[in-house]
Amino acid sequence: MTVLDGKKTAQDLKEEIKLSVSKIKAGGKRPPHLAAVLVGNDGASLTYVGSKVRSCEYVGFDSTLIRLEESTSEETLLKKINELNHDDHLDGFIVQLPLPKHINEEKILLAISPTKDVDGFHPSNFGRMALEMDAFIPATPYGIIELLERYQIKTSGKHCVVVGRSHIVGRPISILMSQKGPAGNATVTLAHSRTEDLASLTKNADIVVMALGIPEYLTADMVKEGAVIIDVGITRVADEKHPKGYVIKGDVAYEEVSKKVAAITPVPGGVGPMTIAMLLKNTLFAYQRKN
Ligand code: NDP
Fold this sequence. Notes:
Layout: E1 2-3, H1 6-26, E2 33-39, H2 43-59, E3 62-68, H3 74-85, E4 92-95, H4 105-111, H5 123-130, H6 139-150, E5 159-163, H7 170-178, E6 187-191, H8 198-202, E7 207-210, E8 228-231, E9 235-238, E10 246-249, H9 254-258, E11 263-264, H10 271-290
Parallel strand pairs: 1-11, 2-3, 2-4, 5-6, 5-7, 7-8, 8-11
Antiparallel strand pairs: 9-10
Bound molecules: NADPH dihydro-nicotinamide-adenine-dinucleotide phosphate.
């Protein structure tokens, strides 16, 4: 059984990006610059944004964290986005989701310039991705593709079941794996909460991508011997024995499933670290396109 080590692969990627940045700097140019906008004080969002900023520093990018009050109006946020869209010293930026309830997320995502949309959530980028055109690909599915490629997992002709149809994970990974590109050419089934008899699908899958957010949902009896399992789920589960008061669980019952399959991503240390590395890669692309 192979553990698809996202932590190590992400570190390899960061070293590659760091090298590109040092070459840029050696040429007397400014490094790539990523900004993150965080509205409010959500604990998980603070953690995610914090590690994105630290990763930027690690690879030598410039980074800017813009923190706005929970009570920030939609209008103020839109003005901020407009400023960032026109800032020539900025290559890309992200608006950390979820946003407070009084702000319309769709309106915000539409306001981000597609040329700076390194999260790849703007319809222009999503559409371009679906049409196999040059685009920013959302970091989590992009990270899964990179992981499959680097571990040389054969996807061509394989049956892949994706569980979850969100716009940021399930839907885009189902599109990417059915395309003609790298880690593609799979026959993809996209399952969701209305799917009947999910186990009959996962049991026949060569590759299962779990992206639903229910801890340890996929059990050993639901997978076939020798399958490849990608676990995207990240859920905080209360655990008094742990100093933080919680542990992180994936969507896969790792202990039992890992004994039966050919390859699997752990949680933590699988898809999560890849997501941040691919955000950096998208920012480097944005910089290279501009320069
Ligand atoms: P969403 O809540 O947006 O989507 C969940 C999907 O799962 C929906 O399509 C839903 O179906 C489906 N679903 C829910 N229950 C079932 C069920 N019983 N059987 C089959 N399908 C079901 O989640 P996200 O895609 O945003 O995130 C999924 C998980 O991945 C979360 O744990 C999240 O924290 C994690 N995540 C991890 C990232 C990383 O970097 N590793 C990045 C992003 C997310 P329906 O559409 O019918 O409601």
